[in-house]
C-alpha cells in the first residue's frame, strides 16, 4: 500500500481546494428549499465552481458520473444523481462537493433539512455528524485507521444506528480517490499507522435502520435495503505533527 505524504507546498494547494469545496456548500445552502430540484442545485454548484472559482467539479465524468455534485435524499445512502426530483418539506439531503483546483482535490459533504425532518431522519443526520467528529478527533501521528473506524462505529451503534460498510473514506490529493481506504468501523490499534502529511477524508454513512444497502439500476444511487433514512457528513483532513487540520472547514464554522 502506498500512501502519499504531502509536502508543505502540496498542502498549501490542498488548503485552497478544501476551502473552495467548503465555500460551495456555504453558497448552496440558501437554495435548499421546498420546490427546488436536485438538478437545479447541481447546475448552481457547477456554475459557481467553474465560473466563480475557476475550478472543475471532480465528480463530472468521473467513472461516467453524469453530474457535478452528488445529491442524496432520505433513504438514499450516497452518490445520488441530481435530476428533476423536487425537494419536499421533510426531506433530508446530502450534498457532496468535490472540486479540483489546479490539479488538487478537496472533498466535503453535509446534510440539509428541507423543513422539518422526521425524528428518525434527524437522528441519522445527528448521529452521522457526531460519528464523523469522533472519527476526526482520533487523528494524530501514531494513531491507526482502526482507531478512527472504532470511534465511529462504537458511537453510531451506541445510538442504535448502523454503519454502512461498502463505502469508505479515502486518501485524496492529485487523485480523487487515493490510498488508504478509511473504514468507518474497526478495532483500536489495527490498520495503517498515521503519519504527518497524510491527507484523507472521513465520511461515515449512518443508517437509522439496518446497515445493508443496494445499488439502484442507474448504476450510482445507493439506498438502504430497509428504506430507513441514511445520512452522511464528510471532511478532508491532514495529519499534523500533533493532531489534525481539517482542510474543508471554513474559519469560524463548526465541523
Ligand atoms: N464525493 C464522493 C466521495 O466522497 C465521491 C463521489 S464519486 C461520484 O468520495 F462519481 F459519484 F461523483
Ligand atoms: Co465526497
Ligand atoms: Co470522499
TrEMBL record:
Entry-linked Pfam families: Peptidase_M24
UniProt-listed InterPro entries: Creatinase/aminopeptidase-like, Pept_M24, Pept_M24_MAP, Pept_M24A_MAP1
GO cellular component: cytosol
Residues the record lists as binding a divalent metal cation 1: 96, 107, 234
Reaction(s) this enzyme catalyzes, per UniProt: Release of N-terminal amino acids, preferentially methionine, from peptides and arylamides
Cofactor note: Binds 2 divalent metal cations per subunit. Has a high-affinity and a low affinity metal-binding site. The true nature of the physiological cofactor is under debate. The enzyme is active with cobalt, zinc, manganese or divalent iron ions. Most likely, methionine aminopeptidases function as mononuclear Fe(2+)-metalloproteases under physiological conditions, and the catalytically relevant metal-binding site has been assigned to the histidine-containing high-affinity site.
GO molecular function: initiator methionyl aminopeptidase activity; metal ion binding; metalloaminopeptidase activity
EC number: 3.4.11.18
Residues involved in a divalent metal cation 2 binding: 107, 170, 203, 234
Domain Peptidase M24: 12-241
Residues that hold substrate according to the record: 79, 177
Enzyme class, spelled out: hydrolase
Swiss-Prot/TrEMBL cofactor(s): Co(2+); Zn(2+); Mn(2+); Fe(2+)
One example of a Gene Ontology biological process annotation: proteolysis
Keywords from the UniProt entry: Aminopeptidase, Hydrolase, Metal-binding, Protease
Family assignment from sequence similarity: Belongs to the peptidase M24A family. Methionine aminopeptidase type 1 subfamily.
Quaternary data: Monomer.
Function as written in the Swiss-Prot or TrEMBL entry: Removes the N-terminal methionine from nascent proteins. The N-terminal methionine is often cleaved when the second residue in the primary sequence is small and uncharged (Met-Ala-, Cys, Gly, Pro, Ser, Thr, or Val). Requires deformylation of the N(alpha)-formylated initiator methionine before it can be hydrolyzed.
Annotated protein name in UniProt: Methionine aminopeptidase
Protein species of origin: Thiohalorhabdus denitrificans
Lineage summary: Bacteria, Pseudomonadati, Pseudomonadota, Gammaproteobacteria, Thiohalorhabdales
